[in-house]
Specification:
The complex is a heterodimer.
Chain A: H1 12-42, H2 51-57, H3 60-75, H4 79-108, H5 116-137
Helix pairs in contact in A: 1-3, 4-5
Chain B: E1 2-3, H1 5-11, H2 16-23, H3 27-34, H4 42-52, H5 56-59, E2 60-61
Antiparallel strand pairs in B: 1-2
The chains are: A mainly alpha, B mainly alpha.
């Protein structure tokens, strides 16, 4: 029988920390979607106006804010969580670098990969996500 | 490394969340310690020993002992 002491309820500090992170992350993502939509609607990204580059880069601002929120959350983690996060990030980093090297050699051989940056980003993020879940479940 | 964390926690009628709160770590970390998936750093081991008023070696023992 599972004891009442074996419940998965977290303490108030951990709950506060997780809620604060979820709120800041959520707000950042909402801001990202809003700025992205604004950029696509009003940015005239196919036009000739140099201002379109500013519009194209505008979504980076909320993404950078989300990155800061993420880094702060990881840095405030305890020693075990930090170790787990580090392992996940290491796998993500290694996969991204590997993909970049593969793309680099293919480019040397004359293969042009459209949207290469997005492929590297997607591959790295996916590797990080899968590794983080696998490490957590282990 | 083996440890007596779960026994001590039960003796003190603490949930994993309550113990985590007192140690300043997450519930997941307490669970990892209890299941032997993670060995604590020396500072955390000292905090655990202080909380339960036991010497470290009474709580943590090498696997082959």
């Amino acid at each position: 029988m599972t004891s009442e002491l074996d419940t998965r309820t977290v303490g108030p500090s951990e709950r506060r920390r997780t809620r604060s992170f979820a709120l800041q992350f959520g707000l950042g993502m909402v801001a990202y979607v809003l700025v992205l939509v604004a950029s696509l609607v009003w940015g005239d990204l196919d036009g000739d106006d140099p201002v379109r580059f500013l519009w194209a880069l505008a979504p980076v601002v909320p993404v950078a804010a989300v990155a800061v929120v993420l880094v702060r959350f990881v840095l405030r983690s305890d020693e075990f969580e930090l170790l787990q996060a580090l392992k996940g990030l290491a796998v993500g980093f290694v996969v991204t670098m590997l993909l970049a090297v593969i793309a680099g050699f293919l480019a040397v051989a004359g293969l042009d990969i459209p949207g290469l940056g997005w492929w590297l980003y997607g591959g790295g993020m996916l590797a990080w996500l899968v590794a983080s879940i696998a490490i957590k479940l282990r | 490394m083996k440890n007596e964390l779960k026994t001590l926690r039960d003796e003190h009628a603490l949930s994993q969340g309550a113990l985590a709160e007192r140690l300043g770590v997450s519930r997941q970390t307490v669970n990892a310690l209890e299941t032997g998936k993670y060995d604590p750093s020396l500072p955390l081991a000292f905090r655990i020993a202080k909380l339960f008023d036991r010497p470290i070696e009474a709580i943590f023992t090498p696997e082959d002992d």
